[in-house]
Amino acid sequence: MTRSPAPFPAARMRRLRRTNALRDMVQEHQLGTTDLIWPVFVREGTGVEDPIPSMPGVARLSIDKVVAAAARAADLGIPAICLFPYTDAALRTEACEEAWSPENLTNRAIRAIKAEVPELAVMTDIALDPYNANGHDGFVVEGEIVNDETVAALVKMGLAQAEAGADILGPSDMMDGRIGALRSALEAAGHRDVTILSYAAKFASGFYGPFRDAVGAGTRLVGDKKTYQINPANTAEALTCVARDLDEGADMVMVKPGMPYLDICRAVKDRFGAPTFAYQVSGEYAMLMAAAQNGWLDGDKVMLESLLCFKRAGCDGVLSYFAPRVAALLRA
Ligand code: PBG
């Protein structure tokens, strides 16, 4: 809502910008630690922190280190952590069976976190790419990413995660019908309180590059993901996807990537009012970190500003690799 100010000099907008106290008093949006979800990469081993070159400051962690990160998140007041696996090469197959194994990295990490830090919400990713020999989110049959067969596999994957104790399932695959299929399978299996945060408005973006390095899917990917992710040029299509996912039983929805898509965040929140999250993705993180490391931008400032802007755009929260750093800064 805007109101037209009285003409100058009655209205001097700078009056309320004069001091910190006045500026704080009229600040419209706030960023807090409870707005953050922290994405974390999991790998095999013990005591391992394996740095990801395209994401300075981010590493793939062995499960013991993930549990330590979870404890740190809880301590900082971050409500949720989101797990992404870096699967051993031998377990990446065309049939992707590892994706629904109760003993896969994600499911073991969920159980380990829940044993040590039960109060922290654990979110997962549902898509086949970390397990797929060809790096795609779905099964590939004769060069085509097949929808319905993939949905059946994603349901098995989500059920295994729910069984392991996940609080929030995050289908990021963009197959049609997966939210409804997952929701009814969860109900039937007695997991009626497991929530779904749908990657509803997920665009076919160039900003996912460093993430694909992190989960080891980048060099494997054959072709691109344009037959299932949304064209970055399309607003109405993104809103249709959000409407559909909410109808099918998503509890929360996501817009992804974040910073170049704030208009979509605003439109989703205004139109549906549902809990709306943005994913400040790996490429956005890499971009800000690279500039900060070169001394071209003030890292802390742009980190805080970029996250606050998601709140202004209507988001209820943000998945960000900056989560622990922001939380520590906000607490200081
Ligand atoms: C894929 C998935 C991707 C991300 C989260 N889940 C990448 C993709 O769609 O290729 C990207 C997250 C990021 O870039 O930080 N299932």
Automatic annotation (TrEMBL):
Pathway: Porphyrin-containing compound metabolism; protoporphyrin-IX biosynthesis; coproporphyrinogen-III from 5-aminolevulinate: step 1/4
A biological process term (GO) from this entry: protoporphyrinogen IX biosynthetic process
GO CC terms, sorted: cytosol
Pfam families listed in its UniProt record: ALAD
Family annotation (InterPro entries): ALAD, ALAD_AS, Aldolase_TIM
Keywords (A to Z) from UniProt: Heme biosynthesis, Lyase, Porphyrin biosynthesis
Gene3D superfamilies linked: Aldolase class I
A molecular function (GO) term: porphobilinogen synthase activity
CDD domains registered for this protein in UniProt: ALAD_PBGS_aspartate_rich
Entry keyword DNA-binding: no
Quaternary structure (record): Homooctamer.
Family membership: Belongs to the ALAD family.
The name this protein goes by in its record: Delta-aminolevulinic acid dehydratase
Species of origin: Rhabdonatronobacter sediminivivens
